[in-house]
Amino acid sequence: MHKKIEEGFDKGRSVENFTPANVPRPYLFIGADNRVWWETNAHRFPNDSQTPANLLLSERIMPMPKLIRDALIALYCPAHLKEAQSTNSFNKACLVRVYLGKKKNPPQHGSRPATFFTLRNFPLHLNQMTDLGLDVENFARSVADALALMHWIIQVDARDVEFVLGSTPIESHFRGPSYSAHSKAAEEYQHDPRGKRFDFLQAENSAMDA
After folding, report:
1. Which of 39, 105, 133, 187 lies 20 to 30 Å from 170 when distance is taken between CA atoms?
2. Domain map of the chain by residue range?
């Protein structure tokens, strides 16, 4: 399924006025019945995830760069949590989920202060995108093009598709394992934060005879 969708998007880029979204590249499939691989590598996984299963190795969606992470904390993190969250290493794994059909409601007067904040899978709602001056129409067009392509060309139902903002390495000709050779400085500063990528773990083939 992953490969089918990737190939469909590669074809879709030749369509006039198509606004591309980036699909993580699949590199390697390891089946649950690959006993040799699992016997050799199962110990590398957490203790509760060592049972052989179908495994797909794909391109990592790179996190948002530090400049943007700091800005999100400054704008949206509750004041009493900012100091701790600005140095929390877990926030380096920052992907932004785009919610074009929802608005973030402000805290109600008298409500309890938030006790938790994280940049992992950070939800960015429509009114927040507008407040930040982002090009909402461009995001909406990219999402619409992706859904239309998946439905009409690739013929999958796009169920539970997730659109996220990460970053794309500026040296985009590097693919696969070569990412691991990038220095820490490159990971922090040499990424284009406009990359739009998504997940489709539950997508299935759809019938087109309705």
Report:
1. 133
2. 2-23+61-199, 25-58
